[in-house]
Amino acid sequence: MEFRAPAVALDQNERATEYLTENLKDPARGRNSVKRIIAELGNATNSYPNWHPLLTAPNQTRSGQKYFLSQLEAYEGLDHTREFVRGFITCPYSEIVAKQLVETVNEVPGLYAYRLDEPLFSDEAFPVVVEATDVVLEADGTIRSRDALIWFTQQTTKEARDAQVAETWWNIRSYILGDPHGSRSSLFVNQHTGSHMRKILEALNNSGMFGPIKESSLAMLSEKKRDRISETLIRTAVDVWDKKSSDFTFELRGETCKAAVRDTWDDGTELSIRVQIGNFDLYVSGFYYVADDRITHSDPTGKRALAEKFV
Fold first, then answer.
1. pLDDT tens digit string along 188-207?
2. Half-sphere exposure of 148 (CA within 13 A, CB side)
3. pTM, entire model
4. What residue segments make up the domains of the chain, in order of their start?
5. DSSP, residue by residue, the chain
6. What confidence score (pLDDT) does residue 127 get?
7. What pLDDT score was predicted for residue 281?
8. What residues contact residue 80 under an 8 Å CB cut-off, 6+ apart?
9. pLDDT, tens digit, for every residue of 67-76?
10. Cα separation of 221 and 304, whole Å?
11. Going by DSSP bridges, is the β-strand pair 111-115/87-90 parallel, antiparallel, or unpaired?
């Protein structure tokens, strides 16, 4: 489905406003506060792209990539938090915690924190606003393209030395685009920026600097095709199952398929099925309901060229 940023932004902002004001004695005043915060920090979001300054600016004493604010020591004390494109608001119940959070964040270059005078989330909370001062928004509410591309490229190449495999766009676009997102845009980056990010990632992957390319997500295929792949493999497994061995193999379209069939409740009504080709080169799982000859399944994962054999 096409990502419609204005509609998504409206829904996100309404949800954030409701969350931050529904418990207040004066929710109308709270809504005015949230409205000002949205004007300052941009649209409400769910999670940041991994290159966002809010994740990369703090010194990280703990090793490994950080994907969430709660993983960073600089933001210790977060409570009842809502995120926006340029920053976030958090509402701890302790004034001491709120004061310490402001002091700690203001020691980080590129970040600025301050206490909010008006209550949010609860009349007993002490709201703190944190913003990434280097983040500039385009007219459409997304991060300025040049900045986003620079931060994305810097973060991506930084990870190359420790990488074991090259992750495809479809595998990691949630980390690149932030959430919510579409196929190449989000509330953080528009289609122009997202398209260039994909091109940069593919060029870096093709250079070999990350190692062999790992294919996993099949989100580039339509939902109809993904359904067809899962249903083809699961139904074939059901049809060839001899009802004696729970684990078996079968041949289909030139490929050896390893299947596992279990009677979920030991009553013959529901079968739990997994089918795998190679070392997870293609994997599907789901359930077969005997009474009405019906299949449900999760999305298949694996390599696109192999998966398309079963469309």
1. 999 999 999 999 999 999 99
2. 29
3. 0.89
4. 5-132, 145-214, 223-310
5. ----HHHHHHHHHHHHHHHHHTTSSSHHHHHHHHHHHHHHH-SEESB--TT-HHHHSS---S-S---SGGG-GGGTT--S-EEESSEEEE--S-HHHHHHHHHHHTTSTTEEEEE-SS-BSBTT---EEEEETT--B-TTSSBPHHHHHHHHHHHHHHTSTT-SSEEPHHHHHHHHH-BSB-SS-BSSS-HHHHHHHHHHHHHHHHHTTT-SEEP-B-TTS-HHHHHHHHHHHHHHHHHH--SS-SEEEEEETTEEEEEEEEETTSSSSEEEEEEEETTTTEEEEEEEETTTTEEEEPPPEE-HHHHGGG-
6. 98
7. 96
8. 19, 20, 90, 91, 92, 121, 122, 125
9. 899 999 999 9
10. 8
11. unpaired
Asked if residue 300 has a cis previous peptide bond (ω within 30° of 0), the answer is no
Angle, helices 191-207 vs 169-177, to 10°: value is 130
Residue 9, both tokens: 């932004």
How long, in residues, is the chain? Answer: 311
- Token digits for 209? 């600097």
Query: Angle of helix 5-21 relative to helix 27-41, nearest 10 degrees?
Result: 140
| pLDDT band at residue 182 using 50, 70 and 90 as cut-offs | very high
| Whether the predicted pLDDT of 63 surpasses 80 | no
- Tell me if 263 sits within 8 A of 273, measured CB to CB: no
Classify the C-alpha dihedral 101-105-106-107 as positive or negative.
Answer: positive
